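Q: I'm writing a short methods note and want an example of a predicted protein-small molecule complex. Could you take the sequence and the SMILES for pyridoxal-5'-phosphate and return the bound structure as tokens? Please keep the output block clean; save any remarks for afterwards.
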Amino acid sequence: MIRLAWPDVGDAEAGAVADVLATGHLTMGPKVPEFETELARACGTEHAVAVSSGTAALHLAVLALGIGEGDEVIVPAYTFPATANVVALAGARPVLVDVDARTMNIDVERVAAAVTPRTRAVLAVHLFGRPVDWEQLEAAVPERVALIEDAAGALGARRRGRPCGGLGMLGCLSFHPRKVVTTGEGGAVVTSDAEIADAVRQLRHHGWQPPDLRDLPRPGLNYRLSDILCAVGLPQVRRLDELLARRSRIAAGYEQRLAGAVATPRAADGDVHGWQAYVVQLEPRAEALTALRRAGVEAQIGTYALHRLGAYADHGPFPGADAAYERALALPLHARLTDADQDRVAEALRPVTSGFRGQKHLG
Ligand SMILES: Cc1ncc(COP(=O)(O)O)c(C=O)c1O
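A: Understood, no commentary inside the block.
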């Protein structure tokens, strides 16, 4: 079986975990700030706060901005559900906005039309690692509206030279095993705003503000990331450029084999794709999935059209999200993928895509 994903971890990570176990400090020891320093450096921000998942990062970003009842937050209609869930769970209203079916990112023109006096923030997703057209997004909303990046899959991606995660007021990262850097489960909030970083730190640790543990200024959660898991992430974030270069080579290998047969992904000119996933578009996708499975290739849908889920069923219609949902297909992408594996993927897709007459590129 050619696997969809395979975390790029080995001896360095195993050794780092063994070192932590030997110290007896399993959580909130020295590995947490070490990991945070490397993350802030990678995102070009002053602060990073490690948390227990990408979802926790998004949740704390929304809470740290004081977003709650009566507020609206604009989110893309095509994304992983956590992007909208955290807004709803904070008591605010997620306002779904359609995506551009080609880039699969939020349609910036529609964002401008969705802003109301209640809009507190836009949660913009760099989907699959493709940077959002950031300057256009900034121009589409009034200054009072905070821009939060769901950079769950965009660590290492760059918009016109600037690292994703560091573009908005806050950025949220995920270290789930399908991400370029993984800690098994994990996430982080990155920001250059010291007050927001403090608020996130407080909220991830029950509401406490160390070193003063006599009072609890506000209620919080336990969204901490353990030293053990930060130790797993550290060697990876230190070799991030190498990890990205390898994924980018695999993406180029797919482009070579598949361009013209399916619509292939790419970043806008001048941007660097983060290649969290390699997601093409084709029709009929169900047949492609069956053909790949039959050839021993693990593949997956792209992500979710939220208005097709019960929780957001009354938010549509979103034709861009529908098109992306129906056509998007994630192909295997990891460092162990060989040229022969990529040949096999392309070969398995050939009978399904031989009549392809659609658009060549998605970017
Ligand atoms: C765009 C996006 N946002 C948020 C998340 C949630 O991250 P986690 O699984 O670490 O909670 C994911 C995870 O896949 C994602 O793809």
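A: Remarks, as requested: The longest strand covers residues 119-125. The chain has a mean pLDDT of 96.
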